[in-house]
Amino acid sequence: MNSKELIQIAKDTKKPKDVVTAFLANTGKDTIIEVSEALVDINATYISLSFNNPELKQIEPWAGTSKGRQVYIDTFSNVGTYWNVDDFQVTDLISENETVAVFGSFTYTSVEVGHQFTSPFSILAKVQNGLITYFQFMEDTYASARSFRSSGKWTIKNNSHERSVG
After folding, report:
1. How far apart are the first and last CA of the chain?
2. What CATH number has the domain bearing residue 82?
């Protein structure tokens, strides 16, 4: 079944599992607008990586809590601009009532510096009347941010021990 057919199935059934499956199958730069207009509520909440972290937002502008369908379009379009998506695998998708939990892994390569990383991910989504109203995406934030580092080391101090990493 192709990704466009999944959108139609989700629109027909309005089942949360079908809606999230169709959305995830259409997050590429060429399909994100269509799937967002079809399956994301105009006032949907999107949380990426943290609720509010201004320092992280400087590295990954989509980080934090945002509202509106356009955020979904901008975020997933940016993923395809900042990284090449080498692999994206859903391993588990669990649905109960309006809540959907998704688990898996992905491998991305940063476009600018060529650093590749693999990360687990988890998603908590809420779907009402066939539309995503809430979407929280979590990943290995250290690995994703580190994929943009072109040079330098971090000095870390914890438990009275200081060391450089990277």
Report:
1. 43
2. 3.10.450.50
